[in-house]
Amino acid sequence: MSTTSTQPSSAKTKPDGGPQRGEAMLGAEILVACLEREGVEVVFAYPGGASMPIHQALTRSKSIRTLLPRHEQGGVFAAEGYSRVTGRAGVCMATSGPGATNLLTGIADAYMDSIPLVAITGQVPQAMIGKGAFQETDVFGMTLPVVKHNYLVMNVNEIPRIVKEAFHIAQSGRPGPVLIDIPKNIQEARTQPIFPQEVHLRGYSADRKAGDLELNELVGLIGAAKEPMIYCGGGIISGDASVELLEFAERTQIPVATTLMGIGCFPENHPLSLKWLGMHGTVYANNAVNEADLLLAIGVRFDDRVTGKIEKFAEHGTIVHIDIDNSEINKNKVVRLPILSDVKYALARLNELLAKAGYERAGAGNFSRFPGWYEKIAGWKRSFPLAFKDTDTIIQPQYVIRLLHEMTKGEAIITTGVGQHQMWAGQHYDFIHPRTFITSAGLGSMGFGYPAAIGAKVAKPDRQVIDIDGDGSFLMNIQELATAHVENIAAKAIILNNQHLGMVVQWEDMKYESNRAHTFLGDPRDPKRIYPDYVALCKGFGVPCERVLEKKDLRAAIQRLLDANEPYVLDVMVPYTEHVLPMIPGGATYKDVIV
User: Fold this and answer.
1) Helices (H) and strands (E) in the chain — how many of each?
2) Based on the domain organization, do 409 and 554 belong to the same domain?
3) Strand locations in 153-278 (E)
């Protein structure tokens, strides 16, 4: 991740690289000029009274595309989708009060998943702050626990510095969201701005590099290991370290399991891949990570959905943890060798040290360093494959995803909502590239999938972008179909419609003797009727939609979705009785897995 913002080629700079003074401008115009200087291509922004001056300035920008979401939450999720596929900070904007509070879930989502985001909110005029003015909320205070940093702009002359700092903070080190709250009178104030060319933040350093002493110690641990594993996560993707990870795995010949956030950082069609671990991860990944004698945890945070009962997680192995964020070291799991470092640097340097130590890079399928370990893992794969009971007539959700993978050759960008469909997408679509599985992992925000697909498609217009969603999750931000239609954004969606909150139903079946506690999403007066009617709803938005009831019709329907050059929805009816398996119950260990 770059630690400095890039300057567009049209930006003027002084010969000595110092700050540049501009002509007198309104605060709102200065803000837009700053966004242009940061290379911002698109802003997802919903206007209101406290942000109108900024929207007026945006209409005059020649380089920024302003997209109008139909809800602020849709806007922030779209900005996240843009960020997750590009690695650059997504930008969203809302007015004060309810506009700002509607951004909170998306900001928290970006914080949990370490996604670079710059959220801009209008605020009531300074003289009204703290007086309970119309549409006033303390968004600065409300966001403190869920941002990397935030600002309340109190002087129009501070806008250039604050915006420059915001993008630097959001995109450097461990990425995250930054909020800029701007009172309306500041937006309407006029000054001659000074645009800084560099950022200097006392006490903030994102440049962290491991020393050779600790890296050589790690090389020694690898040389002594008999059954080692790599457990890696979203830090590989945000650190742009997938290439280095692949070389490291092939030099050491150590198998790899990822977290949900790490899906795609290591190609899942690689012989060393065990896909992902955790509550609904593969049995063989969970077994291997927990029974390894050396566990290399890289760019991960030992979250509960991966570890289960934390004191029992990898309890017999030596754990090495490489991470850029010192606060994550020994937070959830005490480790033998902590290494504070940018993961791209650490892996690149490890590859150099391994080469000097005689570790040649093995070709695909030519791995022989740990034969007994490979055979043990192969045995687990044979005993516990990712399988499901397929039929000739009923459309199983896993089948839908496997068919989509086949028809897209694994090259689509997949977004998801949150629930069973999210887990099935991760299990049955084999991802081979980073930034192609876009999901709300840490916060688990329903309604994420389709707005994120819009943002991803805006960022990657030439790629096939498909939201795999559930009927409950899709309905939460269905209004964004209007955004996709009006802006001609060809984001697709496949709804795995079981008329229930499927993941909660699964827990009801397991813990509460299948007693349904408000998890039926259909019409209780006519339970056999498919409700709501997504075909009719989509028609109202001007978006084509098909309902698929029989398995024989599915392939042709998916092909029509793939061929469409506009937003397109498939409403695929699947059984609500299907469970996501394997499953490790919360707070349990890998040995308690349900298969």
Assistant:
1) 23, 22
2) yes
3) 177-183, 190-191, 194-195, 228-232, 256-258, 273-276
Q: Both 341 and 415 in a single domain?
A: no
Question: Both 274 and 325 in a single domain?
Answer: yes
Question: How would you class 362 by CB atoms within 10 Å of its CB: exposed for 0-12, middle for 13-18, buried for 19 or more?
Answer: middle
Same structural domain, 349 and 403: no
CA distances in angstroms from 253 to 283, 535, 580, listed in the order given: 21, 50, 31
How many domains in the chain? 3
pLDDT digits (tens, 9 = 90+) for 515-541: 999 999 999 999 999 999 999 999 999
**Is the pLDDT reported for residue 55 higher than 90?**
yes
How far apart are the C-alpha atoms of 75 and 55, rounded to whole Å?
A: 15
In whole angstroms, how far apart are CA 232 and each of 101, 185, 240, 319, 323?
A: 34, 47, 13, 13, 10
Cβ count near 11 (within 10 Å): 15
Output the domain CATH number for residue 322: 3.40.50.1220
Same domain, 222 and 361: yes
- Output the CA angle 353-357-361, nearest 5 degrees: 80
Q: Is there a domain that residue 180 lies in?
A: yes
Q: What's the rounded mean pLDDT across residues 77-97?
A: 98
Strand-strand pairing, 65-67 and 42-45:
parallel
Q: Are 199 and 165 in contact, with CB atoms under 8 Å apart?
A: yes
Q: CATH number, domain at 83?
A: 3.40.50.970
Q: Is residue 14 part of a domain?
A: no
- Whether residue 143 sits in one domain with residue 227: no
Confidence tier at 20 by pLDDT (50, 70, 90): confident
Query: What mean pLDDT comes out for the span 208-226?
Result: 97
- Summarize pLDDT for 268-292 with one digit per residue, the tens: 999 999 999 999 999 999 999 999 9
First to last CA, the chain: 39
> Which tokens is 345 given?
């640097």
Q: Which of 166, 195, 224 is the last residue in one of the domains?
A: 195
Are residues 234 and 188 located together in one domain of the fold?
no
Q: Please give, one letter per residue, the 3-state secondary structure of 211-232.
A: CHHHHHHHHHHHHHCCCEEEEE
- Beta carbons within 8 Å of 431's beta carbon, 6+ residues apart: 263, 264, 267, 268, 410, 414, 437
Residue 41 has pLDDT above 60, yes or no: yes
- At CA 346, angle to CA 344 and CA 349, rounded to 5? 105
226 touches 373 (CB < 8 A): yes
Q: What integer best gives the mean pLDDT of the chain?
A: 95
Residue 251: how many other CB atoms lie within 10 Å:
20
Q: What pLDDT digit, counting tens, does each position of 238-255 carry? A: 999 999 999 999 999 999
Indicate whether 438 belongs to any domain.
yes
Catalytic sites, residue numbers: 72, 134-135, 184, 503
Q: Do the domain assignments include residue 170? A: yes
- Residue 290: enclosing H or E segment and its boundaries? helix 283-291
Q: Which tens digits make up the pLDDT trace of 571-583?
A: 999 999 999 999 9
Q: Are 146 and 94 contained in the same domain? A: yes
Domain hosting 409: range is 397-573
For residues 427-451, average pLDDT = 98
